[in-house]
């Protein structure tokens, strides 16, 4: 029994030492400007998420059951910077606002967004989407029109399908013509759950929400 306790204590001490070493490494890397992208895993009612941010703001939210973590990190390296480090504390504001949103205590996000990796067209589409209010919805064509590209509704759908920051940039609020839900990068079940959370879709009826004001 004594040996087991001593072994456990040694293991705990080694774990603490490892955590402290990792914390020192992170502080050093940040102090020396070696971290361009910080990331963290976040639990949510929709499943595990990978969140990532830069000095400019939130740059990625990924559903981890739709895209493997390594694939998401590689895409971040390609799109943003290869200098990526797991740093959960830097994503605490994102986690907090997501928790409040899922708990029904937040109707809009105050998180800064890093738009810089997006092309001009995608950014215009996603900025128009970002402006859709809580509980509202627009069609793909309406989003394209608000982005200044009224005939580009198909391209708008493609840009929304590649939304790198779902939930916060609410592409779930964009529907197909005729009141149909259309697609969603996280799957239609997640889209329905998000709309139900916002009171934009009645779960027992699947009815359409009212248009935003």
Task: Describe this structure as you would to a colleague.
- The structure is a single chain.
- By secondary structure, the protein is α/β, with parallel strands linked by helices.
- The protein folds into 2 domains: 20-102, 2-Layer Sandwich (Double Stranded RNA Binding Domain), CATH 3.30.160; 120-197, Winged helix-like DNA-binding domain superfamily/Winged helix DNA-binding domain (Arc Repressor Mutant, subunit A), CATH 1.10.10.10.
- It contains 7 helices and 6 strands.
- The protein has helices at residues 2-31, 69-79, 92-102, 120-130, 140-146, 153-161, 188-197, and strands at 37-42, 49-54, 57-63, 84-86, 138-139, 174-175.
- A 4-stranded mixed beta sheet has the order 3-2-1-4, covered by helices on one side.
- A hairpin with a 6-residue loop joins strand 1 and strand 2 (49-54).
- Helix 5 crosses helix 6 (153-161).
- The relative contact order is 0.11.
